[in-house]
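Incident log, support desk, overnight shift.

02:14 A customer reports that sequence design results differ from what the structure should imply. Their input is reproduced verbatim below. On-call engineer (initials T.W.) acknowledged and began investigating.
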């Protein structure tokens, strides 16, 4: 049975579960050879309880947790990977294009609430991918995140995945009242929608990393299909000031982003991150704004969308995508959260 077949429609109370995925997701780490009670306890301490969790972690994190050298940690990670290959959950190292095509067919999409923005994304936010929205303050990053909290919980025929959301809030800008308004404007019960959102406030970058370590078990436990990190970069930018700290900042951010990419792929969830751009008024050539995360975020996000304000409208542009055309679309922010500009909605109704 494919994931798509397994994920039936329904209310968020009867969350879809993929049989074989649930089975794989619950295989505990001590089922691997060479993991005794002491190692198990140490791995549990950093949120690794299953083989799947172990496969998502980097050997250096595992080495730190277990107190071993890197080669033993690499061996453990490889064992986890091999087990998942054996169970046909992971692809083998050399696979046919047909296999990759099959795995990609399990990708599902979540509507952003705007037809224009969905078109730009070839149908909406994808699972198995990290989508980054970057832009200046007020460009709509947080509003997109809030709207996705509602739309992802809709049934599939309405553009959602009938599933829960994890919202990692690093800037203290998560507003349940705004979610309630968006839900209500979209004809949903705001109480039900709010129940489906698991919020984690990250107080600093280390806390943000701890939350990430727990993410796998939260996804499994609560049937989450969308993870939002708003913003992925803010704490790193605030804490690592000055040139001397730049390489550590980039390293930590790099690890954070790579774990998110692996999480998206392994658990077949959609991950959305935001990233503020700083205005550099002294730049005369090229784009006067640049993403704060620098190259790290740019190279690990699967899709990057640049947002800017244009009067009352917002403009989104797909940047560096392997298969989307680079073009711009216009969307609008209102009581429904993200929406299409009224003239587009009117012309669509006419057609
Ligand atoms: P930073 O986090 O500061 O980088 O900005 P951001 O890109 O996250 O901006 P955000 O998504 O918060 O967008 C702010 C804009 O959304 C405001 O300028 C308003 O235009 C719009 N907005 C925010 N809240 C509401 C609301 O409740 N109703 C409506 N109609 N618009 C809103
Ligand atoms: Mg914001």
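02:41 Re-run completed on a clean worker. Output:
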């Amino acid at each position: 049975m494919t994931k798509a077949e397994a994920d039936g429609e329904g209310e968020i109370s009867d969350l879809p579960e993929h049989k074989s995925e649930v089975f794989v997701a619950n295989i505990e780490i001590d089922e691997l050879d060479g993991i005794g009670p002491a190692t198990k306890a140490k791995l549990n301490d950093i949120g690794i309880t299953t083989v799947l969790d172990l496969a998502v972690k980097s050997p250096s994190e595992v080495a730190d947790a277990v107190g071993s050298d890197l080669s033993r940690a690499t061996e453990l990670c490889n064992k986890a990977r091999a087990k998942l290959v054996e169970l046909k959950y992971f692809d083998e190292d050399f696979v046919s294009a047909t296999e990759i095509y099959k795995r990609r067919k399990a990708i599902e999409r979540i509507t952003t609430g705007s037809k224009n923005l969905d078109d730009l994304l070839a149908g909406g936010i994808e699972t198995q991918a990290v989508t980054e929205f970057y832009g200046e303050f007020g460009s709509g990053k947080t509003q997109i995140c809030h709207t996705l909290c509602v739309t992802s919980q809709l049934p599939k025929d309405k553009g959602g995945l009938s599933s829960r959301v994890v919202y990692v809030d690093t800037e203290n800008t998560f507003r349940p009242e705004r979610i309630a308004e968006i839900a209500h404007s979209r004809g949903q019960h705001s109480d039900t929608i709010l129940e489906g959102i698991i919020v984690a406030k990250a107080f600093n970058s280390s806390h943000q990393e701890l939350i990430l370590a727990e993410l796998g078990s939260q996804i499994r436990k609560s049937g989450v299909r969308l993870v939002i990190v708003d913003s992925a970069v803010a704490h790193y930018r605030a804490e690592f000031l000055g040139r001397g700290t730049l390489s550590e900042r980039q390293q930590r951010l790099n690890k954070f982003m790579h774990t998110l990419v692996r999480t998206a792929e392994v658990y077949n969830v959609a991950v959305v991150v935001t990233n503020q751009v700083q205005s550099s008024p002294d730049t005369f050539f090229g784009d006067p704004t640049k993403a704060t995360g620098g190259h790290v975020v740019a190279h690990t996000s699967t899709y990057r969308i640049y947002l800017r304000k244009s009067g009352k409208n917002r403009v989104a542009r797909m940047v560096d995508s392997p298969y989307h055309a680079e073009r711009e679309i216009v969307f609008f922010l209102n009581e429904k959260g993200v929406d299409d500009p009224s003239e587009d909605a009117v012309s669509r109704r006419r057609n």
